[in-house]
Amino acid sequence: MTHRLAGKIAVLSGGASGMGVTHTRRLIREGARVISFDLNEGAGPDLVDELGEDKLLFLRGDVRKAEDWERVVAAGRQRFGIPNVLINNAGISPLQSLEKVSEEDYRRVIDINQVGTFLGMRALVPSLREAGGGSVINIASTAALVAFADLFPYVASKWAVRGMTKAAALELARDGVRVNAICPGDTDTPMIRAIADTPSGALPPTDDLPFKRWAQPEEISAAVVFLASDESSYMSGGELVIDGAYTAQ
Ligand SMILES: NC(=O)c1ccc[n+]([C@@H]2O[C@H](COP(=O)([O-])OP(=O)(O)OC[C@H]3O[C@@H](n4cnc5c(N)ncnc54)[C@H](O)[C@@H]3O)[C@@H](O)[C@H]2O)c1
C-alpha cells in the first residue's frame, strides 16, 4: 500500500480534542509522523498509547507563546526530523456579541485564533524552507466567509486567518511552501456541542442545513490529508470549503 503522506512530518496545534484527534489519526494512517501539542492534556496521552511513540509526539503548549512553539519545533526535530507540514488547528469559539464582549475577552479570542496562527507560521517557516518546501494548513471556518451573530470575536479572528493565509502564500511561494485554509461548517466536536447546548440561537438548527446534519470530523481530516500531501502541489493561497453547501445559499 502506498502511503499518501510518507516522509511527512507534521506539527499540529490543538491535538487533544475534536478535529485535532481525527486529524492526528488520519495523518498517521497515511504515513506521516506527528508532533502535536495542546493547552490541555485531553486525549493526547491516550493517542500516543494508541498510535505509538514512533509516530506521535504529544506535548503541552500554548499557541499564544512564541517560546512554546520554539520548544515544540525543537522537540519534534529531535524526535522525527525537520517538519514539512504545519496545521494551525487550535481555537476557541465563545459566544460573544459586539456590544457585550469585554475588551479582555475579545483580545483572548484574537490571541488564540489569530496571533496563535501567526506565531505558528513564523516559528515553522525556517523548518519548512530547510525541508525544501512544505505545506501550511490554517483551520479557518465558514465564519471566515460569512458572518454569524453572537460570535463577534470568532468571526473577526477567522476572517483574519483567511487573509493571513493568502498573504503568507504569496510571501512563501518562492520557497516552495504552500499555505491554504480549510473552512469547515458546523462539525461534530466538543466546540460545536458547547454552542448548541446554549440556548442562544447562534447556531442554525440542523434541519435548516442543506445536508440536515453537521460534518463529521473525519470529513475535515480528509481535506487536511489532501493539503498535506503532494497531491495538492499547485494549490496555495486558497481555501477548501467543507460546509455541506451552507455558504452556497
Ligand atoms: N467544530 C466546528 O463546528 C468548527 C467549525 C469551523 C471551524 N472550526 C475550527 O476547527 C478547529 C478545531 O476545533 P474543534 O471543533 O476540534 O474544537 P475543540 O474545542 O474540540 O478543540 C480545540 C482544541 O484547541 C485547544 N486549544 C485552545 N486554546 C489553545 C491554546 N491557547 N493553545 C493550544 N491549544 C489550545 C483546546 O484545548 C482543544 O483541545 C478550531 O480552530 C475551530 O475554530 C470548528
Q: Which hetero compounds are present in the coordinates?
A: nicotinamide-adenine-dinucleotide
pLDDT average, as an integer? 97
Q: What percent of residues adopt helix (DSSP H or I)? A: 40-55%
Number of strands: 7
Write the H/E string, N to C. EHEHEHEHEHEHHE
SS strand fraction: 15-25%
Separation, N- and C-terminal Cα atoms: 40 Å
What's the CATH H-level superfamily name? Answer: NAD(P)-binding Rossmann-like Domain
Please describe the biggest sheet, giving its number of strands, its sense, and whether it closes into a barrel: 7 strands, parallel
Strand order of the largest sheet: 3-2-1-4-5-6-7
Quickly count the helices.
Answer: 7
Low-pLDDT residue intervals, each spanning 5 or more residues: none
Q: What is the CATH class name? A: Alpha Beta
By CATH, the architecture is named: 3-Layer(aba) Sandwich
Cα Rg: 17 Å
CATH fold-level name: Rossmann fold
Keywords: Oxidoreductase
Protein name: 3alpha(Or 20beta)-hydroxysteroid dehydrogenase
Pfam families: adh_short_C2
Family: Belongs to the short-chain dehydrogenases/reductases (SDR) family.
Describe the structure.
The protein has 249 residues and is an alpha/beta fold. The chain has a single domain, classed as 3-Layer(aba) Sandwich (Rossmann fold), CATH 3.40.50. It is built from seven helices and seven strands, in the order βαβαβαβαβαβααβ. It has helices at residues 18-29, 44-51, 66-80, 103-130, 152-172, 190-196, 217-228, and strands spanning 9-13, 33-38, 56-60, 85-88, 134-139, 177-184, 239-242. A seven-stranded parallel β-sheet has the order 3-2-1-4-5-6-7, sandwiched between helices. Helix 3 (66-80) runs parallel beside helix 4 and helix 4 packs parallel to helix 5 (152-172). Nicotinamide-adenine-dinucleotide is lined by residues 13-14, 16-20, 38-40, 42, 62-64, 89-93, 112, 139, 141, 184, 186-187, 189-192.
